[in-house]
Design goal:
single chain; alpha/beta; Rossmann fold; 6 helices; 44% helix; binds 5-O-phosphono-beta-D-ribofuranose; EC 5.4.99.18; purine biosynthesis; PurE_ClassI; isomerase
Length: 163
């Protein structure tokens, strides 16, 4: 079993500018992860294989991003009990509301933890994954606490009023 605990998957190369936010924060928090293109529609066999082997490969969280008819997170949740965090990628036609609804409205029994549309959602997916792993990993918990404290400390108490 490898040390990789988080899988970041996305429906297309075009999702990478959004999904790299998840990879970046996991890098920053020193969480080993893998990144793959897995499309519910274009590579269904790859999706099935990924879901079928997720537990035995030691994955503990899967972050899945897709846009439009965004079936990837839900289909992955139907194939593995590894928790799936869904990221709705922003689309041109419907601004990502299509992605959001596609990911959010899962039937009872197969949950996907759905984030916000776009880059903030991807960043939060990485943080959510780190928070889940930190429950069993004291060193990661310390790094995540420090990251959160630094973010809070960076917020000024009064707004700049020039300009
Ligand atoms: C989805 O279709 C992907 O997740 C992507 O967000 C969207 C468009 O894909 P491309 O046509 O850019 O490859 O499956």
């Amino acid at each position: 079993m490898s040390g990789i605990r988080v899988g970041i998957i996305m429906g297309s190369q075009s999702d990478w500018p959004t999904m790299q936010e998840a990879a970046e924060i996991l890098d920053e928090l020193q969480v080993e992860h893998e990144v793959r293109i897995v499309s519910a529609h274009r590579t269904p066999d790859r999706l099935w294989e990924y879901g079928k082997t997720a537990v035995e490969r030691g994955l503990q969280v899967i972050i899945a991003g897709a846009g439009g008819a965004a079936h990837l997170p839900g289909m992955m949740a139907s194939k593995t009990r590894v928790p799936v965090i869904g990221v709705p990628v922003q689309t041109r036609a419907l601004n990502g509301v299509d992605s959001l609804y596609s990911i959010l409205q899962m039937p009872r029994g197969f949950p996907v933890a759905t984030m916000a549309i776009g880059a903030a959602g991807a960043r939060n997916a990485g943080l959510m994954a780190a928070g889940i792993l930190a429950l069993q990993d004291a060193a990661l918990a310390d790094r995540l606490d420090a990251w959160r404290a630094a973010l809070s400390a960076s917020i000024p108490e009064t707004p700049a009023r020039d300009g």
